[in-house]
Write a structure and sequence with these properties.
The protein is of the alpha+beta class. Helices cover 40% and strands 18% of the residues. It has a single domain (41-201), classed as Nonspecific Lipid-transfer Protein, Chain A (2-Layer Sandwich), CATH 3.30.1050.10. It has nine helices and nine strands.
């Protein structure tokens, strides 16, 4: 049996998600418990420092535009959320200097960047490194394994977080595709993201995972 899988070579385990689809993930990701966080890459310190003076107003405008574009491209995402289509989430990405507040807005989402001491009123908080969020979005790592290992930690309404995780899994989001770029620009950005992936380990692209079985 030949097994090809993204990122690191390791023993693979099977996982049947909420749709009944078969996926695979590394045993080092699912069984090491809280030690998994030692393996997740983080944003380089120099980049974290460079991000601190960013004006949060313009950042919030750009992020909201991105969230609205995702809503237009993936309308079924909000149907999958059900009663939680209006929920609000605090995304505390611990290796960046600000927190993102995602208000799903029943199909008209907003995403705001805020300082950590200014956050109030979210239904749930998801906390972890940027790589964990990107890896869950792109299917690089299984979301259940990330939560089980506490690389992504949840406070508040866990049912809302589960609904969000399932909706993201169904949507099969790809950050480059969601940016709404032209064909040439999209190819250039994907190539640049590929270089950044190799330098930092951050899962910036969605990659296809294949499994070939031989008797």
């Amino acid at each position: 049996m030949q097994r090809v899988y993204q990122w690191q070579q390791a023993e693979l385990l099977t996982f049947v998600n909420h749709r009944g689809d078969l996926t695979v993930y590394s045993s080092t990701q699912s069984q090491r418990g809280d030690a998994m966080s030692d393996e997740l890459p983080v944003i380089p310190k120099a980049l974290q420092t460079a991000m601190r003076p960013l004006p949060l107003g313009p950042v919030s405008i750009l992020l909201t535009r991105l969230a609205r574009r995702v809503a237009v491209r993936h309308p079924d995402l909000f149907g999958r959320l059900g009663d939680y289509a209006g929920a609000c989430f605090e995304l505390d990405m611990m290796d960046q200097p600000f927190v993102l507040v995602l208000d799903l807005g029943n199909g008209a989402p907003t995403m705001r960047a805020r300082r950590r001491n200014a956050i109030r009123g979210a239904d749930a908080t998801i906390r972890g490194p940027v790589a964990g969020f990107l890896g869950m979005m792109h299917g690089t790592w299984d979301g259940d394994a990330l939560f089980f290992s506490r690389d992504l930690m949840v406070e508040g309404d866990t049912s809302a977080v589960l609904a969000l995780r399932n909706a993201i899994d169904d949507a099969e989001l790809d950050l480059v595709e969601e940016l709404g770029l032209g064909e040439t620009s999209r190819a250039l950005v994907r190539r640049a993201f590929g270089v950044a992936e190799r330098m930092t380990g951050l899962p910036l692209n969605r990659h296809q995972m294949t499994m070939d079985f031989y008797s």
